[in-house]
Write a structure and sequence with these properties.
Layout: H1 4-33, H2 44-53, H3 56-75, H4 77-96, H5 102-105, H6 108-116, H7 123-134, H8 137-157, H9 163-190
Helix pairs in contact: 1-2, 1-6, 1-8, 1-9, 2-8, 3-4, 6-7, 8-9
């Protein structure tokens, strides 16, 4: 589309925000292992949790794909024998797409395609819907739990967290809010009342 605001918004929401969220979470986890202030004690437990939560979307997708694969094989064994290579490659690709840092780059080709479309082409809405569905697992399965972990630690220690933790909390809250609104709007398009 010719509207640069649409491309800028999709770029920010589909690429920059998830990337910044994961990067801040990595720095937050790193900071729990090796704090920068001498009066703060290392907290490897929260460091492990903070780093581990980053992989929740990939773990959830792995469980989903394994369950789907087993059900497919049980129901369509003959078909599976014929297409097993393509089938397994697709399942593996779906899991790999959910890994940290890879997930943020999945929508980049769609953003480039969106920028090349002319105003009024019907493909723009389809691309935007596809981008919205790709991005839902990061906010709900990574940013949400990460937000809860950081808030819990803040409440437990009763001290103002380090700036990197505050940035992680704020970015996670923004990701969750935008994903909730986006999911509502996608559902309104998919299931109009």
């Amino acid at each position: 589309p010719d509207d640069p605001k649409m491309i800028l918004i999709s770029y920010l929401l589909s690429f920059v925000l998830p990337l910044v969220d994961v990067v801040t979470d990595v720095f937050t986890g790193y900071g729990y292992f090796w704090p920068t202030c001498p009066e703060v004690q290392p907290d490897p437990w929260f460091g492990r949790i903070t780093i581990g939560v980053i992989f929740l979307p990939a773990i959830a997708k792995m469980i989903q794909e394994a369950t789907y694969s087993l059900m497919f094989v049980c129901r369509n064994y003959q078909l599976f024998k014929t297409i097993w290579k393509e089938f397994l490659l697709t399942r593996i690709k779906n899991v790999v797409y959910q890994l940290p840092f890879i997930q943020t780059f999945v929508n980049l080709p769609n953003i480039v395609l969106l920028a090349s479309l002319k105003d009024g082409q019907p493909d723009a809405e389809t691309i935007m819907l596809e981008m919205g569905t790709h991005n839902n697992s990061e906010p709900f399965l990574e940013a949400g739990p990460q937000f809860v972990v950081q808030i819990y630690r803040w409440i437990e220690y009763k001290t103002l967290p380090a700036p990197r933790v505050l940035v992680s909390i704020i970015i996670s809250a923004i990701s969750i809010s935008l994903a909730a609104g986006g999911t509502f709007l996608l559902d309104r398009v998919d299931y109009p009342s």
